[in-house]
Amino acid sequence: MGALTERLLDPALRESFLRIGLPILSVFFVIYYALTSVTAYRKLANFKGPWLASFSELWLLGAAGTGKMHLRLYEQCKKHPDEDLIRVGPNSKYKRQEILSCQWYSPLKVDPFMNNIFSERDPEKHDLLRKQMIRAFALKENPQLETKIDKSIGGLVDLIERKYLSDNANFNPCDFAQKAQFFSMDVITDIALGESFGDCANDQDMHDYITTVGSQLPLVTRCTSNSALLSFIDSAPAKMLFMPSEKDKTGQGAIVSLVESRVASGKPEATDMLGHFLRDGMNPRQAISEICTQLLAGSDTTSTSVRAIWLHIISSPRVFSALRTEIDTAIRSGAVSSPITDDQSKRLPYLQACIKEGFRIWPPFTGLLVKLVNPGGENIDGTFIPGGTQIGHCTWGLMRHRVFGNDADFFRPERWLEAENEPERLKEMEGIVDLIFGSGRWLCLGKTLVLIELRKVFVELIRRFECSLIYQAEPWTSGNYTLFLQKNMWCRFERRKDAL
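^ thats the sequence. predicted structure below, dont judge the formating
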C-alpha cells in the first residue's frame, strides 16, 4: 500500500475532512448553486410558469416521475391561456406550437456509442441517414408492405378468434392493450427483418422486448428532464453500464443479437428494411442500430394509437354505430374487399375522421422534442429568446387548440367532416395534428406505414366482432413517460351474428 493511499485512509484525516472540508465544500456548492440559479432566473425572467421551474429543474423532474407529465404541462397551458411560451425549467420553455436538436435526444440511442436517426444532431449527418433509410419506407419500392400488414392483422384476428371470444356460456376477457402491442410488434418486425416475432401467434411477448422497454422508459424520461442525469446517461461509464449486449437472452440485447446474425448472413438482396439499409450504403453497425430504433418507434407509438382510437370508438355508441354503418354499407356495395385495401379505406370518410380525431384526443408521443435556440437568439412571434435556450412543445395542449372548437376535450370525429366546409380551418387542424409525426427533416419516416395499419385494422375488427369494455369506470391503466405504457384494457369480444 503506497504512502498516499495510507494517508487518504488515515482516520484522523477523514475526521478532519468531515469536520472542516465537507462544510466548506457544502458552502461553495450552495454559493455556486445560488449564483447559477440567479443567472438562470434572470435570463428568462420575463416568461411565466411554475415558480420552482424558474431556478430549478426539480419541477420538470417531478412532473416526469408522475407518469402524467403530459397533463402537468397541459395544466400550465390552461393556467396561462394568453401565453404562447411558458417556462418549465431554468433554461427550458415549451410552446403551444413547435430550432437545432439538443442533448435531450441522447437517451434514444440503442448503440450508446453511435447516433441514430433520432439522436443525430448534426443536420448533414442526419440528412444522410434519412437518405439511406427513406426507400425502405416507400410503398412504390416495397409493394409487399401492405401484404405484410394484412398478414399481421390476420394474426391479431386469429388470436382473438382462437382464445378470446365470449358468448352467453363462455367469458374470455381480452387485454386489448397487450394484444395491440403484439400486433404492432409483429408488423414492424416482419417489415424490418422479413419475419415477424410471432407475438400474436404465440400470444406472448417474444424475447421479453416489450417488457424490457417498458421497464426502461420511466428512467429515460427522468433523464431527459434533468441536465445532470442527462449528462450522466450520455457519459462513457454509463454507456458501458447500460449498453445492450448480444449476450443478453432477453430485451434489446437479444434483439441486437438477432439483427447481428441477420447482417452476418450476408443477404443484402432481401427486400425487408434491413436489406434496403445495407444496399443504400449504410454500414452494418449503423444498420443494426437503426433497425433496433425502428422496432421501438414502430411498435410503441402505433400500439398506443390502436388502443386509444379503439377505446374511444367502442366507448361511444354513437361513434361505433356510425362507423360500423359506413363499413357495412361499403362491404355490401362491393366497395370494400376482404381484407380491405388501403385505397379502399381512404374512401371511408368517417373512418378517416375517427383516426384523425384519435390522434388529436390521444397523441401517442408527448415528449417535449426539445430544440436548442441558435447562439445569437431567435425572435418567435415577436418575443426574443436568448441563445442556448431549450424549447419544446406541449403536444397535449396543442391538440386542444381553440381551432378544434370549444369541445376539444371530447372525442367527436364529426368535427373533421364539418371542417370540410371551412378549408382554411381544416388546413390548420390537419397541420396541428400532423405535428405528432414531426416536420421537415424531422418528419417520421414511418408515417405512411402507421396510417395504413390504422386504416385497415379497425375495419377488420368491426366487420367481425362486437366489442365492449369490461371495466367501464376504469378502462385501462395508462402512464405517460414520453411514450405511453398501457395495460389492463379488458374487452369482451363476441362474434358478430351478421358478420360480413
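The longest strand covers residues 490-495.
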